Amino acid sequence: xxxxxxxxxxxxxxxxxxxxxxxxxxxxxxxxxxxxxxxxxxxxxxxxxxxxxxxxxxxxxxxxxxxxxxxxxxxxxxxxxxxxxxxxxxxxxxxxxxxxxxxxxxxxxxxxxxxxxxxxxxxxxxxxxxxxxxxxxxxxxxxxxxxxx
Length: 149
Description:
By secondary structure, this protein is mainly alpha-helical. The protein has one domain (3-148). It is 84% helix and 0% strand. The protein has helices spanning 3-23, 28-50, 55-77, 82-88, 95-106, 110-148. Its main location: membrane.
């Protein structure tokens, strides 16, 4: 991957995240932050996959980063966390695998379709588990700061 490809991919990810935020009526002052959080989650996912971590671990770490960053920015901007979570998840959604699954089921290639189905389930589960872990990290961090006061 060249630097130019990396920059195009990053700009595309940011743009897709912001565009989805516009589609679901996220307030204007949360769009840029949501785009940056989505880009952060995607970059963590991408570098994990490139480093040999696999799609499931990459999605887990990306979702965890999105969850932690969303809570931090929600506190900073005094806005609900979901305004940052929902658009930021767009780059991690396993749309390609879901499409291949449906296509192969329609073509009668059930073995290939089940392979894609397993991938979709594992990726969706890792995203959900990443959000669960981010909530745990946020609560531990909150208790740590409360005890320091």
